[in-house]
Amino acid sequence: MQAAKPLFSGNKYWAECFGIAQFLPMSVAEMTALGWDSCDIIIVCGDAYVDHPSFGMAVVGRTWENQGFRVGIIAQPDWHSAVDFRRLGKPNLFYAVSAGNMDSMINRYTADKKIRHDDAYTPNNEGGKRPDRAATVYSQRCKEAYPEVPVLIGGIEASLRRIAHYDYWSEKVKRSVLLDSKADLLVYGNAERAIVEIAERAARGEALKAMSNIRGTAVMLEQPPQAWASRDSTHIDRPGKIEAPKNPYVYEQDTAANDAADGMAPAPESELGLNASSGCGKRSDAMAALDVSGDAGKQVEAQILRLLPSPTSKPEYIELPPYDVVKNDPVLYAHASRVLHLETNPANARPLLQRHGDRWLWMNPPAIPLTTEELDDVFELPFQRVPHPSYGDAKIPAFDMIRFSVNIMRGCFGGCSFCSITEHEGRWIQSRSETSVLREIEKIRDMTPGFTGTISDLGGPTANMYHLNCKSEEIHAGCRRLSCVFPTICKNLKTDHSATTQLYRKARALPGVKRVMIASGLRYDLAVRDPEYVEELVTHHVGGYLKIAPEHSEAGPLSKMMKPGMETYHRFKEMFEHFSRKAGKQQYLIPYFIAAHPGTRDEDMLNLALWLKGNGFRADQVQAFYPSPMASATTMYHTGKDPLHRIGRDSDDVVVPKGLKQRRLHKAFLRYHDPDNWPLLRETLQSMGRAHLIGFGKRHLIPPTQPAGWSPKHKRSGPTSARKPAKGAILTQHTGLPPRKGGPAVGGQKKRVAATGRRKQGPVTSR
Q1: How many CB atoms lie within 10 A of CB 754?
Q2: Which residues does 721 contact at the CB level (< 8 Å), separation at least 6?
Q3: Which residues pair with residue 41 across a beta bridge?
Q4: Residue 570 — left, alpha, or beta (φ > 0 → left; ψ -120 to 50 → alpha)?
Q5: For the whole model, what pTM was predicted?
Q6: What residues pair up with 50 in beta bridges, in sequence order?
Q7: Residue 477 and residue 266 in contact, taking contact as beta carbons nearer than 8 Å
Q8: What average pLDDT score do residues 599-625 get?
């Protein structure tokens, strides 16, 4: 991987002389008070402006400000005309557009495509303050406001729509958002390196459209680059005789190599169709040994794969199937999705090219991850840690949720197929220093209004991947695995949680800090490797209820989710209960599950319902699978093929629960205890030949009759009265309410995770 220029090592722009703004200005009056006659860059965003490092616009704006640029913000503009986009005047360099911390469609619609009437990123939780497909709409309005001003788009919505992608809401494959938005340049992922370089080059007079060589960006080209060699990956399973291509890898025995039995070894070049003359090609015996499409648990010899130098002196890019093809060909769409996900390691990823009509989308490799020192610098920029004063006393729920939390790391190597965190933030874990994290806790204590001594979270995309990375930089640089922990944990992965445990202890020992909670997702298959960490977590950082996410009980769905089996859950449960007893505490595990995920049969959901009843769980609120753009599980949903393994015309099909009735059925199995679901479940159990599960006994799942006085939901008037839970049942609830009578309930904060489309709540959430 090439060396990166230190993040803030460049010369500052001349406007540095104006100094640091208390808040980035949102009005001309604020600009005037700062002595500005114009803004160099104007950020347009779908969220309210909260000057906090958990909000993208604040991080981006403060990063540019640190380089000497004058940055203004237009938050949640009226998009019905271009008037509001002229609020701060004409930017000297460019507009920077983001839909916000969430994809605007996931923010606006439920998994059943019903409109949400709230928006946690808007003052007073008011819905409807941003348009559908906000990045596209905002960009077009910026072009209307000042046609000559370039537009840069970024944020999670741009990240997840950077190539041709399946759109769940229109049920179509849509073009890259770069074309639909008419923006000049797209930046994806955590983009500090890219945005600093973009601003510096724009200040020197370079057009955004001409910036085709910045990592972490995508741009439209009039023709493929002539200085590059093409690796054709536009076809699979070509007919006729195919000559075996030269093996582009050299294989070396190494005791420190990736354990191929993990089932996700690097994909051979031939699997990706990366041969200009033969498409897929015949693989060598060494390649065949690494075919993981069979039994993931088969033991095969561990090897390191190294890419040999190309026979041409030109650098290489991979050409994906064109948009006009993938929009009509599900198999090639799945193939393109697999190639994309295999080209996400910054150390070995190659540029991707995808034709859209008469133009080409050029996507550069991901940005080089920030060092610990650089990440510290970003999080220690002069954030005020509160909403902009213009909002007055209005409540912004997303801010209330993270007001007393600290982000300690970025990235996730879990690779869960339904989650897009990896596609946005990458698999490399970027961690802050312990010193920086403790300093931020002290700032919260000293600066944040309402602090009473409780830190609500130390985490990030996960709670327990802090400072966990590959044991070998060389192996890490050559790895193309889609997950470091599925189907087993790679033996080259560090699983020592001592850095996290030490951070927790030092944080709770700070003067003025009474308690440190952990609200980010806990990867419990990693946690069980370190009992000392689990003891620290359970003894000091759990508020009575620890919500973890096995997601399912059955092997079929779990294999498509890339999640561990229930045996890992039971191991963690034993440790949790042991350390709770040792601490003299009565604490509960609350499992979280997904309904209607690709790979899930009706029988799987029935077995999960039986597991829930057998273990005394009643889910108050359940989540149906939400096909977010670019996730591997979304590819399964759309194509019926599994991009976690080799793709071909004859590849096995994935069972996909589709249609409103089947998705409702799968959710009904999770809420087997709700009388509203009993008629549908009775009908289903009878058709499945499982009528023996209908009755009043403990061995039955549902009763044969409805409760006295029951009426269908659509015929009820007024609020539904609470039903008394079964004696001894553990209620799972995600509303953040205090415990209620009849059984324990999950308390704590509300937590929304944009990348999964899921609204997570509770003091601790496991992923």
Answers
A1: 25
A2: none
A3: 71, 94
A4: alpha
A5: 0.86
A6: 387
A7: no
A8: 92
